[in-house]
Amino acid sequence: MDTITAVILGIVEGLTEFIPVSSTGHMILTSKLLGYNDQDPVMKTFEVVIQLGAILAITLVYWRRILDLFGIKRMNGRETSLVPRKRLNLLHVIIGIAPALIVAFFARDFIKSLFSASTVIWALVAGGVFMIFAEWFNRSKARVTAETMDDLSYKQVFLIGIYQILSVLWPGFSRSGSTIAGGMLAGASYKASADFSFLMAIPIMVAASGYEMLDSYQNLTKDTLGLFAIGFIVAFVVAYVVVLAFMKLIQKIRLTHFAIYRFILAIVFWLFIMR
User: Fold this and answer.
1) Catalytic activity, per the record (predicted)?
2) Are 200 and 179 in contact (CB under 8 A)?
3) Mean pLDDT across 203-222
4) How confident is the model at residue 111 (pLDDT cuts 50, 70, 90)?
5) Torsion angle defined by CA atoms of residues 30, 32, 38 and 40, in that order, rounded to the nearest 10 degrees
């Protein structure tokens, strides 16, 4: 790996991790086009490191809400207790991430056995269809009971957590795609679903990346550290910009647009990986 490769992969990770287009599919395709084996141990460690950069970006975007989850609010530079009110709380997040974490813990080896290029291609297509259906279902205002993230009920976040299992069991389905679409099917607005998907990504990605790092930390050597740091920083900066831009343009960029892009990516994937 060289500096240019580290930058390119960092950009791809930052661009795709939090929008519903499958970062897994993009990383496999990009690695293949660059002539790298994405299953190489060092490459897998690099992917974990740049994913941590993306996690740091989303944490920075939502740092106020994270403090809020723990009942803390910053006022005039000091931390004070919040008066209890109807808002998204820590229990909502725990309920939302629990199903996927439980499945991932007990089915880790089985999930890895499912990983293949053909699996990712079909996941891109199936995820796109799922997103189109969710947007069609959510088009009626009568079905929307949670306009903002703070309106989400425990039942709704649990359903979102169940939908997130799709991305755990089917590599390439997209974690953000399954949770945003799942939220819309559960009665949340597009924005509320996206907000909760991004916030929920922090603990679940920290858990997943941390677990993977335990298996591959030995690849962090003085020879790789510099390139890993470059990828980490690039992924952090790009992910930060992408999330902010996505939330500003959320009313203009629909799930159907991402679904169409996924179909195109599946075709490209087939042409360059499967043939």
Assistant:
1) di-trans,octa-cis-undecaprenyl diphosphate + H2O = di-trans,octa-cis-undecaprenyl phosphate + phosphate + H(+)
2) yes
3) 83
4) confident
5) -140
H/E element holding 81? strand 78-81
Residue 84 has pLDDT above 70, yes or no: no
**Three-class secondary structure of residue 78 per DSSP:** strand
**Is residue 37 within 8 Å of residue 31, measured between CB atoms?**
yes
Distance between CA atoms of 156 and 16, rounded to whole angstroms? 25
pLDDT at 176 over 70: yes
Distance CA 32, CA 188 (A): 38
Whole-number Å distance between alpha carbons of 20 and 256: 10
146 forms beta bridges with 188
Cα separations in angstroms, 253 against 20, 183, 249:
11, 17, 6
Candidates 223, 241, 180; CA nearest to 53 is 241
pTM: 0.90
Long-range contacts of 83-91 (CB under 8 A, 24+ apart): 86/150, 87/150, 88/149, 88/150, 88/152, 88/196, 88/199, 91/154
| Residues facing 74 on adjacent strands | 79
Strand segments, DSSP code E, in 23-109 are 72-75, 78-81
- 78 pLDDT band, cuts 50/70/90, is low
75: three-class secondary structure by DSSP: strand
